[in-house]
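Milestone M4 deliverable, item 7.
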Amino acid sequence: MGAEYVNQSAGCRLCTIAREAQGESADGLADETHDHINSAVCEGMATTVTAAHRSIWSCLYDSMHAAQEPKSKLKFVTLDKESNMSTLWQREEFLRICSKEELAEKAQDIEVTILVKKSQETRYNLNPGSFFVKHFWGRRPDGDAINEALKIVYILEVRWSTDKDEGFLEVKDAEANENHKSIISALEVVASEWAF
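Output delivered:
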């Protein structure tokens, strides 16, 4: 099944409006499909889509926390907001897993194997030596939970999609896993007694 076009003209109208408002060229825009305008990739919808994502995530996170058994050892770490990896590794419970230095070393080995996105090339070209470590510490899962008693860290990610396509759940699960591959892979190396 092909893309469902909203507008058959060249380029997304919402992206065109957003770029023109910033005084930028409207050349090379993505096609205006339902999937495009329902994603943060659409420059005209990015703020709205991101706000909707955060609102949905907040409700889901609050519900998971509220449903937690009183005796549970599971601790939701980022209830109030997303935290990047650097912020998480300033917390005692994460420093008990491994040091920031150990994690940075392994993370860089993994980050260098991940293709640099076109939108990040300028930052990479400014300082290729430190780009990968900074990129790792800037990674921002939607949420995190830790069970120190069982030595499990949950990296939580909300992915939303249309459910009309067969296999949508597997596709979104694979996207989330790919998004956090460097976090999980580095942690599995430096803290093999933990599960992630």
